[in-house]
Design a protein that fits this description.
95 residues, 3 helices, 38% helix
Length: 95
């Protein structure tokens, strides 16, 4: 059993995994007030952030002659997947 402090979050797995089963039972030991973020609103905010990032990536790639004729739709749905890498991470290895 864990005791969460004021400002702690729980239930985030349910926002990202449609088939996730509950991993905990939450029981209040004092009077509590919760800020609730429903999945619909979470997806709306996430969609806005992803859309903004796709536009920024498209603008950046359009500066490269290789991507000038590629549509923003194609880049947003096929190419850009939002992966990030830690510093010094090998992404592709020769050979």
């Amino acid at each position: 059993m864990n005791e969460l402090e004021s400002g702690a979050a729980f239930g985030e797995l349910a926002l990202t995994d449609k088939f996730a089963k509950r991993k905990a039972t939450i029981q209040c030991t004092t009077n509590c007030v919760f800020a609730v973020l429903h999945k619909k609103e979470y997806n709306k905010v996430l969609g806005t952030l992803v859309s903004k990032r796709v536009k920024e990536t498209y603008t950046f790639l359009q500066r490269n002659p290789l991507f000038v004729k590629v549509s923003q739709f194609y880049l947003g749905t096929r190419v850009w997947n939002g992966e990030t890498y830690d510093r010094n991470k090998v992404i592709l290895k020769e050979g």
